[in-house]
Structures are given as structure tokens and as C-alpha cells.
Amino acid sequence: MTTVVATGETGGPVSVRRAGLSPAVVAQVALAAGFLAHLVVVEVLFARAGAGENSVLTVAKFVALHAASLMMLQLVLVARLPYLDRRIGMDRLTRWHRWTGFALAWTVLTHATLVVLGYAALYSMPVLATFLSLAGVVASLLGMCAAAILVAIAAVSLRAARRRMRYETWHALHIALYLTVLLALVHQGLEGTTFASSPAARAYWWTVWALVLLAFLTGRVALPVLRNVRHRFRVIGVVPESDDVVSVYVAGRDLHRLDARAGQFFIWRFPRHNGWWQANPFSLSAAPDGRTLRLTAKAVGTTSAGLRQLPVGTRAFLEGPYGAFTALQRTRQATLLVAGGVGITPIRAMLEESTGPAVVLYRVHSMADAVLLPELRWLAGERGAQVHVLAGRTGTGDPPLAPFAPANLAALVPDVAERDVYVCGPPAMTDAVLRSLRELRVPRGQVHAERFSLAGG
């Protein structure tokens, strides 16, 4: 292992605990409380006016209401609402969206099965004949189409299938989910909700749907469009950092009004160069200064590889800023910033914005892979920070190299338990660091991890 240190006087870490719950916990509690409160209202209203034509259809209606509620939650989780995103983080919200999607698929299949069985029992018909009969009813057919699309999307979202797809392909397939929502809404409207006999219940149900759709359209459409119209982003510089890493500088109008923080990322599009569908999440690799934004990307896909050929003056369409990997989560003044590979991009930006004692651990296979190292060294000198570059392949040597083993991590940063720890890198590295932090008894509230797929693409 090769270790390079750029150092200044950090002094002893100063403990500054935040009073009360963290912003992330407050946002999670608010989200969970809102969803549970909605379920309570739905179940109370169902108990008053939810009986179907037989017991099986009654259960089918109950399941349908919960399937629709899960769909509402799914939309909120990916609405990219600034309040939730800045506190919980898109990576965690997306993970919850994924698991909610699987639960929704099973719930919809359960509902469909119960409907067929319920009507088969009601009219004493064979199951297949009942299914075909229902398919001839417009409202039921729309529901079947929505269910089929939803199950198909759930199948391609399985980890084994997802790994075989490019980001752009996976993203394009998920556009079909919007069609699912539309079909489901028309299906509910034509069928009549469970609360058809209660005007107040019907008003509640469609008001909640309206609010959910408004939140989704605001976060996914209105805010990105307004930001791009206001700022008119354009490329002003393309700088190769190494053979396979490039930095892109983007400027725009009134960037000081763009509420971006070091550690966050944007979803970047360069429509006239790569096409609208080619979009990737790239972290800011420099702290926003009100004049320019910078991404630094490694050529691992079509979009990122093409960045080197971006002409200066190209218009850019940015969605964001997104992410909770920021100083908003800090509970201590002292920080430990851990990066692996191109995961250095948000870490470098956070070091630039840092206040208080900071240590950076930069894990690379070789010194040639340590992009942005001169900038890190300069920032370390300016801010009195320490930068350790940990080079070498894990498991090689005698004893085997394990830079993030608990003993080695504690040797590098003896006061690790007194610091906020930010980790961004490949999954294997991130998992190794998090395991060691648990063994070293670093409080969970001081540990903040960013998924590598959202950090640098």
C-alpha cells in the first residue's frame, strides 16, 4: 500500500452535538406519519362503506385500496421534493421506491386474483371464463393492462436484470410507469371507488390523489423546467483529468440563486450532443461558487465517455440539485471523508466547503488513478486538513492489504468516533468501511454514505 499525506494543523476535534432529532429522522417520521394517517382514514372509511357483493370481493376492494395507496407512496418517493430529498437523500428514497414497487406488484396481483375468484363465485362461472368476461369490460381491461405493465417493470427491476441494462435503457422503461398510473386512475374512475356511496369519502380519496399528482408534477416537471429557463445552463469548459476522466464546467445566469451544496449531484443532459434520453447522475466535483458548476466523470458508459467531445457552448439541461450527502447532516465539527475511485468527486467538493478539522481517505488501485489529487493537496493546505491516499489492491501483499479493516482505520484516524464520517465509493469499499465503523462503535447518526451509482456514474 502506498500512503501519501498532505497535512496541516487540524487540532483536536471539537464535539458539537445537534439538539433534537436529525433532519433525516424528522423527514422520515413526517413521511411515515403522513402515510400511516392516510391508511387509517382509508380503513375507517372502508369499514363504514366498503362491503362488496360477496366476501371475496370485499377483500378484493380492501386490497385494491391499499394497492392504490402504495402507488401514491411510490409517486411521492420519486417526486424529488426538495424537503425530502435534501434530508433523506434520493438514493434512500429510490431504494424505498424499489421495494414499495415490489410490494405494489404483489398487491395488485392479489387484487386481480381475488376479483376473478370473487366474480367466479358470484356468478358460478369457471375461473377462465370469468377472466375472459372481465377482459371484455373496458374498466377491467384497463386495470389488467396497468397490472401487466407494473409486473413487467417489477421484473426488469430485479437486481439480476437491472445489472444487465444501461442506465438510459432502464430509465426509459420506467417511463411506462406513468402510463400505469394513468390507466389505474381511469380504472378507478370507471369502476367507481369503494367510497361511491359516501360523497365525503369520495372527496377525500380524489383530493389525496390530486395532491400526490401535484407533488409529483411539481418535483419532476415544474421545478426542473423553471430552473433551466431561469439559469440557461451551458458548457464553458471541458478539461481532461486523465486518460479516462474528464471535468465539465457549466455556467448559467444567476447561479447564486441555485440552492446547491457540496456533496449533491445533478442529473445531466446535453440534448444537442448526446440526445435527450442520455442522462446520468454526476456529483458536483467542486463546491458551488455561484458562477460555475463542475462535474468530473470516468468513462464507464456511452454518456460519460462522450463528455470529452462536448463542444464549448453546448446547452445543458440539469435536474437537481439532489442528495442529502451534505453538511446538513453533520452532528460534529470534525469530519472524516472517505472516497473510492471517482467517488472522490463529492468528497473533494465537501472538503472545499468544510469547516473544522477534516481527514480525507482516498482509496485507489494505483497512484495513477488518484484524479483530482493536486486539488485535494491544495485544499488540505488551505484548510489545515489531512489527505491520505491509500493505493494498492485489496488482499495483496503479506500481510494482505486491508486499508479499511477496523485496526487500520483506527490507526489512521484514532478519534474516528468523534467525527462525522462521509463515505462515497464502490459498494464493496463502502460496505467494508461501514462494517469497520460499526466495530469501532461510531454512532450511527454520525455515519453518512452515498451510493456510488448516484455519485459519479
Into how many domains do the coordinates divide?
A: 3
Shape: elongated
Structural category: alpha/beta
Residue share in helix: 40-55%
Look at the structure and give the mean pLDDT: 87
> What is the number of strand segments?
12
Poorly predicted regions are 4-17, 453-457
Termini separation comes to 26 Å
Q: Name the helix and strand elements from N-terminus to C-terminus, one letter apiece.
A: EHHHHHHHHHHEEEHEEHEEHEHEHEHEH
Cα radius of gyration in angstroms: 25 Å
Query: Which sheet architecture does the biggest sheet show?
Result: 6 strands, mixed
Cofactor: FAD
Keywords: 2Fe-2S, FAD, Flavoprotein, Iron, Iron-sulfur, Membrane, Metal-binding, Oxidoreductase, Transmembrane, Transmembrane helix
Pfam families: Ferric_reduct (PF01794), NAD_binding_1 (PF00175)
Domain FAD-binding FR-type: 228-328
Keywords:
Elongation Factor Tu (Ef-tu), domain 3; alpha/beta; 3 domains; single chain; Rossmann fold; flavoprotein; 12 strands; six-stranded mixed beta sheet; 51% helix; Riboflavin_synthase-like_b-brl; 457 residues; three-stranded antiparallel beta sheet
